[in-house]
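Run Acyl-CoA synthetase through structure prediction, thanks.
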Amino acid sequence: MNGADDILGPSLAVGRGDSLALICGETTLTYSQLDRLACRYGNAMTLAGVQRQQPVLLLLDDGPELVAAYLGAMKAGFAAVALNTRMAAKDLAHAFGDSCAPLLLAESALADLAREAATMAHVSPRMVFSDELEAFLAGSSDQLVSADMDPEDTALWMYTSGTTGQPKGAIHVHASIALGERHVRENLGVNPGDRIFSTSKLFFAYPLGHCLIGGLRCGATLVLHRGWPDAAAAAQVITTARPKVVLSVPSLYRLLLKDGACATEAFRGVKTWVSAGENLPAELCRRWMEETGGLMLEGIGATEALFLFIASTPADMKPGACGKPLPWAEVRLRSPDGTEITTPDTAGDLWVRMDSLFRRYHNRPDVTQRVLRDGWWKTGDVFAFDADGYWTPQGRSDDMIKVSGQWVSPSEVEEAALMVPGVADAVAVGIPNEDGLIRLVLYAVAEVDEHPPILEARIIESLRAKLAIFKCPRNVRFLDAIPRTATGKVQRFKLREGG
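Sure, done. The structure for Acyl-CoA synthetase is below.
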């Protein structure tokens, strides 16, 4: 078997080779053209000396090159590793040193970064930049017999976002790929020829799993965008390409609502909107569906799971709730002592078991052993389910805050704060005071022209009207920006360490 064949094979097998596989600006590729280009990349990587199961690092922007190189690496029996094009030199150096990858394909604009990172890591992989790709592919055949892989052979790596420190390489296998179509086909309603667009870049598990893997396996047309899509760029792509399904994150949906960009014919042509990556407030979900007329579905997945495991569906959704466990995933809540929680409205650690779970963290057997037990993965998320079976995130297990003997979910406080006019961003953390007692602190970013003392009073007044008193922060500290990883996730530990 081979994961690349699992992705492209269904369309090619039924004679849909001439159907569009992807659109990127003015560039298009059919399924047959994408397959041939993937073969050229796989052959070129082999000629470059990459050995079976070795990782190939891809520091490329979303486009035909990234998709073809990713599939080509898998097809040739290598491990595809897409990296964040906004990562810092130290993070790229970590990926170099951790993976020992013999080959990097990267954007020419990132050449200096790549060389600096290689020097920091004391490694010397072959580096091919985007303006050299044609030369790299020259002479490589567009025919390649897919490597015959064991189901448990490595197909791809994904580096975690590093919210708690050094990123870890999660190893996924060829057997995991086939699961990618289920949510896309069964719940998002994607049929062959439908266009699907993600504002999140393909190095994230969210679009990688549901667009490059699931979308192509369903015969869809991927709509790709070069560059980092802000609200204006996302609106332009949607207006031009007219996708049927759009995947994004709550922060961008909020900006699009604020800008009024979603009140257009193009947005009303989108049948299904998907939200993941962070909690989707109920009010934002309702307002979005009112403005666009489309269905908004939420879900949670992870780098380690590759695909969503809890999500809302067209037949069963509730604004403000993440959804219910999907048929291909088993989920459990456990207390800190390991006891299974079966009572509604009781928060606990979320454990997941599904076929697409990562098999291990590369070079980190200690962490692997701690979070993988008997096929179950401890996600690090805290969830609760209600009497109707809807699951809602309460935050990360290492982010939960105990104030005056009572547990507080940061996400609940942050959701309330983000609804206050004038607040652009907000994060709640627990910080010890001079007596060593934990006190709740809200870090916030004020919108332009807001006066912090006035905004602080507005925030505190609003939160006290909505939340129990022990959940209300004693003070608000304003920052120019919330510290985040290169993938956009909050680095709470930096706020706690900074006090």
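The mean pLDDT is 92.
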